């Protein structure tokens, strides 16, 4: 089974991906947050930094593109192929109110005829591998049948399904019935994505879908970067031999090392306390929930305006609290 890091705009930057990869169980693929191809202009400098080959050494990175214009997609995909990338991913899931009304991201799902023309054009003109990451519709899951039939007309590298509709955003439960049907009928490998926050969640999913080729992890891994190790059972032997308490201490230490490395890497790459703190606070939105009694520390971290205040809040958290590892989050 393959594990992928989900694209999370603003969070799973090349800095995050590299820091994660150097410290925790490596992912089989890392998807970049969406890049927006601009006609004839290429990418912004932030986007270029994210995909520069020297910033992604040793990682299997799949750049993701967000557009509904085939010519822009083709132009950007060719640039990526020239930079050495072998696969690109189409974003058909972004639920944002600034993206959807333009018929992009999940908004593209409301225009199946245009979507089919778009896929037809990109598949006929490009030779690199193309995968799709999709929601199951705009408003209701019944939309997915027709969309799925369109996807099946093309030689997708894989189909990553986040089985929610756009209207759900991240509320309600992923629709496992719709996912299951697609998983069983898809000609290309189907990858599951959504709400895997603990080893128990993954075991339940695999129990339901034996032979699942891949799972993409998003908020769960940001909240608990040790999640994949726990899911893959890498540390299981130690846990079963009664070293659970020691493991929790080790986990706290590893969280701290990871935090410190991420903080340092952002400081080196971005400079400017404001930018660095902004990035770290986005990660803490998720990671703080892995700690006991975290609410007070969450406030301290959120209101920190200097590196000193931030450092004091984070040190207090690591000194006074523990990592729970319960996998129950409210995002
Ligand atoms: C803050 C945030 C940013 C996201 N950015 C992207 C993105 O750039 N591209 C994309 O396809 N999905 C994006 N997503 C969706 C995630 O990739 C993923 O599909 C979603 O979080 C569900 O998976 P999870 O429950 O494992 O987090 C984003 C989600 C969040 C919460």
List the topology elements.
Layout: E1 2-5, H1 14-23, E2 29-35, H2 45-51, E3 61-65, H3 70-82, E4 87-92, H4 112-125, E5 129-134, H5 144-151, E6 159-161, H6 176-185, E7 190-193, H7 199-208, E8 214-217, H8 219-223, H9 227-231, H10 236-240, H11 244-270, H12 273-287, H13 295-303, H14 307-320
Parallel strand pairs: 1-2, 1-8, 2-3, 3-4, 4-5, 5-6, 6-7, 7-8
Helix pairs in contact: 1-11, 3-4, 4-5, 11-12, 13-14
The protein binds flavin mononucleotide (FMN).
What does this structure look like?
With 331 residues, the chain is an alpha/beta fold. It folds into two domains: 231 residues, Aldolase class I (TIM Barrel, Alpha-Beta Barrel); 79 residues, no CATH class. It contains 14 helices and eight strands. It has an eight-stranded parallel beta barrel with strand order 1-2-3-4-5-6-7-8. Helix 1 runs antiparallel to helix 11, helix 3 packs parallel to helix 4 and helix 13 runs antiparallel to helix 14. About 3% of the residues have low confidence. The site of flavin mononucleotide has 21 residues, from strand 2 and helix 8.
In what range is the share of β-strand residues? 5-15%
Average residue pLDDT: 94
Q: Return the string of H and E elements.
A: EHEHEHEHEHEHEHEHHHHHHH
State the major sheet.
Answer: 8 strands, parallel, barrel
Structural class: alpha/beta
N-to-C terminal Cα separation, in Å?
Answer: 27 Å
CATH architecture of the largest domain: Alpha-Beta Barrel
CATH class of the largest domain equals Alpha Beta
Helix content: 40-55%
How many domains make up the 3D coordinates? 2
Bound molecules: flavin mononucleotide
Unreliable stretches: 234-242
Number of strands: 8
CATH superfamily of the largest domain: Aldolase class I
| C-alpha Rg (nearest Å) | 20 Å
Shape: globular
């Amino acid at each position: 089974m393959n594990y992928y890091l989900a694209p999370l705009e603003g969070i799973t930057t090349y800095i995050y991906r590299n820091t994660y990869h150097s410290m925790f169980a490596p992912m089989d693929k890392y998807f970049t947050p969406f890049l927006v191809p601009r006609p004839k202009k290429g990418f912004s400098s932030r986007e270029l930094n994210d995909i520069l080959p020297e910033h992604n050494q040793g990682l299997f990175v799949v750049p993701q593109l967000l557009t509904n214009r085939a010519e822009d997609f083709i132009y950007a995909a060719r640039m990526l192929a020239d930079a050495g990338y072998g696969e690109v991913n189409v974003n058909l899931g972004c639920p944002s109110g600034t993206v959807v009304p333009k018929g992009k991201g999940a908004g593209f799902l409301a225009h199946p005829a245009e979507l089919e023309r778009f896929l037809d054009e990109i598949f006929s003109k490009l030779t690199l591998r193309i995968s799709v990451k999709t929601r199951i519709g705009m408003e209701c899951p019944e939309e997915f049948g027709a969309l799925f039939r369109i996807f099946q007309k093309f030689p997708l590298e894989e189909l990553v399904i986040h089985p929610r509709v756009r209207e759900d955003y991240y509320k309600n439960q992923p629709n496992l019935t719709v996912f299951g049907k697609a998983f069983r009928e898809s000609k290309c490998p189907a990858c599951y994505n959504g709400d895997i926050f603990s080893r128990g969640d993954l075991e339940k999913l695999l129990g339901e879908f034996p032979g699942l080729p891949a799972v993409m992890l998003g908020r769960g891994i940001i909240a608990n970067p040790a999640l994949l190790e726990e899911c893959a059972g890498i540390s299981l032997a130690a846990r079963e031999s009664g070293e659970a308490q020691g493991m929790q201490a080790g986990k706290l230490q590893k969280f701290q090392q990871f935090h410190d490395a991420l903080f340092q890497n952002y400081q080196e790459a971005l400079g400017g306390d404001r930018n660095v703190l902004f990035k770290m606070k986005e990660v803490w939105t998720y990671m703080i929930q892995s700690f006991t009694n975290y609410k007070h520390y969450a406030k301290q971290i959120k209101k920190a305006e200097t590196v000193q205040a931030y450092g004091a809040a984070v040190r207090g958290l690591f000194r006074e609290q523990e990592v729970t590892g319960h996998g129950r989050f409210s995002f």
